[in-house]
TrEMBL record:
Catalyzes the insertion of molybdate into adenylated molybdopterin with the concomitant release of AMP. Pathway: Cofactor biosynthesis; molybdopterin biosynthesis. It is an enzyme of class 2 (transferase). GO terms for cellular component: cytosol. Gene3D superfamilies: MoaB/Mog-like domain, MoeA, C-terminal, domain IV, Molybdopterin biosynthesis moea protein, domain 2, Molybdopterin biosynthesis moea protein, domain 3. The gene is moeA. Residues 180-318 form the MoaB/Mog domain. This is Molybdopterin molybdenumtransferase. The keyword Transferase applies. It comes from Adhaeribacter aerolatus. PANTHER family: GEPHYRIN, MOLYBDOPTERIN BIOSYNTHESIS PROTEIN. One of its GO terms (molecular function) is molybdopterin molybdotransferase activity. Belongs to the MoeA family.
Amino acid sequence: MITVTEAVRLIGENILTLPITEVALTEANGAVLREPISADRDFPPFHRVSMDGIAIRFASFQTGEDTFRIEGVQLAGAPAQTLQQADNCLEVMTGAILPGNTDTVIRYEDLKIFERNGIRYAHIFAAPKGRMQNVHQCGSDRRASDLLIPAGTLLSPAEIAVIATVGKTTVQVSQPPRIAIISTGDELVEVSEMPLPHQIRQSNSYLLQAALQEQGVKAERFHLRDDKAALFAELKTLLSRFDALILSGGVSKGKADFIPEVLAELGVQKLFHEVAQRPGKPFWFGRVPDGPIVFALPGNPVSTFVCFYKYVRPWVRASLGAPAALVPKAILQEETVFRPNLTYFLPVKVAIGTSGMLTAKPIHIGGSGDFAALLSADGFLELPQKQSTFSAGEVYSFYGFRNII
Ligand SMILES: Nc1nc2c(c(=O)[nH]1)N[C@H]1C(S)=C(S)[C@@H](COP(=O)(O)OP(=O)(O)OC[C@H]3O[C@@H](n4cnc5c(N)ncnc54)[C@H](O)[C@@H]3O)O[C@H]1N2
Ligand code: MOO
Ligand SMILES: [Mg+2]
């Protein structure tokens, strides 16, 4: 049996190198960028008016002028006009290009427009502070050809907006790994079926599929019976078709727990079996040398859940080439005692305390088969192996499974 730290290390040594694929920008959110994105033009690409009002020449104001005849209107999206007479003005709108021969914008709030003899004037009553007031100057944010987004960035709406503005309709990203999710067990029937008294509907593969979907991976689901020959034949095919298999069930000590044996016969090299943790102790991990990775997770649903969030999710991110996710700490709210010499993943409900830190309230569950209890939880606190009493106020790593922050 190995420690949680050791398991994390061994998994970290078996990260996939995924090919690059080109996707539509509209499909790229959440993907990992595999090309650098540079500015095609200056940001902003022209002197951009940033307030609705009038544009003048500052020099005219400095000569004592405070009332300007309005020559016309410069709207956003219209080519630049040029002020004809130095002591006149043009009305300008936010987003418009600054008209030629002007260098200062005064907001409508700081002036009054009046009409005399059919001619419109703007009288300003708040002095402009200087040249280029209310002008977002060409190139002041970024310069053409500046690197904007390095390869390896996990794309969020902020990056999508910038990629759009540089004119890319498609973008190179990591191709998601091909993953097969395989539930095993003769007691399991499909969701659409009516289970007999000794059967249950299988849920783990749906849990895993949904959790992978959140990582941008569309995994295929399979179900296999507890039959050694069938497991051998089916897993053989799946190993040839996928980059990784995520199995659930059949890895403990039962008479029908054939998975470790069958994987060994198929040439999957065991990297570890059994991790000093609860839940999830019987976790098996291995790899076909230079080939697919196999996560064989314990079948109890809470164990499958914990192993996914602690081990599989970070592995998917690393394989995609994304930086590791931040693991926040949360303040334990109630004393918790756990004596076995194992790391304990405690289901908790989190909130934000008065200090702004996450607080974690333990959720009591009826063992690792009680996955309905997770409906009240937000994630797990990792309580270290070396300790057995965990006092209220102590701070531990939190692995969340809800989009709440
Ligand atoms: N003698 C021992 N027995 C067990 C040990 C042990 O150390 N010694 N470990 C226990 C622990 S801890 C766990 S966790 C389970 C792991 O069992 P397996 O990985 O072999 O999984 P199964 O036996 O196939 O199933 C366990 C349990 O989970 C249910 N299950 C399985 N797959 C699904 C699914 N897709 N959806 C919903 N539920 C599923 C299954 O029906 C069983 O109830 O072993 C303990 N035993
Ligand atoms: O560790 Mo098992 O994973 O308790 O249910
Ligand atoms: Mg079993």
